[in-house]
Amino acid sequence: MKPVSELLKKRAAAVRSVAPESTVFDALHLLAEYDVGALVVMQDGKLQGIFSERDYTRKIALQGRDSRHTTVREVMTPSVLVVRPDSDVRECMSLMSQRKIRHLPVVDGDRVTGMISIRDLMDDIIADDEMTIAQLQSYIYG
After folding, report:
1. Of 19, 52, 129, 140, which residue is most buried, by most CB within 10 angstroms?
2. Would you tell me how many other CB atoms lie within 10 Å of the CB of residue 10?
3. Cα atoms in the 13 Å half-sphere on the side-chain side of 20
């Protein structure tokens, strides 16, 4: 089974993050700029939570709050499920499905080394399955 560290090698090394005292409006700009669905919330190099599009829609838009005057800390998800770099891709997919989450920070010790999304996992699993099918077809049809 493939570890998530292999997925992280294929992508930009930067961990996309936001400070807890940033406004939600500023966080939304970062989401758009980086074309991602979630940011890790970091303070002094430590993981404080995660801020996602889902947090925005449920805790700002639906509640009629002002994103320019609300801090990320007020609406972030503070209890973050994390995985290690050696976590298996398929186990991560199962975890995300069971917990109904779309993003998992990858943590090595106390350092955030990346973030994987359910799309990253699906793309990788599909690519592996397509390779297996191609190998089987080659074997069968010579």
Report:
1. 52
2. 9
3. 15
DSSP string across 76-125: SB-S---B-TT-BHHHHHHHHHHHT-SEEEEEETTEEEEEEEHHHHHHHH
pLDDT tens for each residue of the chain, 142 residues long = 789 998 888 776 678 999 999 999 999 999 999 999 999 999 999 999 999 999 999 999 999 999 999 999 999 999 999 999 999 998 999 999 999 999 999 999 989 999 999 988 988 888 878 888 888 888 888 7
The ranges assigned to domains in the chain are 4-141
The pairing of strands 38-43 and 17-18 is parallel
Tokens linked to 23: 């406004």
Q: What is the pTM of this model?
A: 0.85
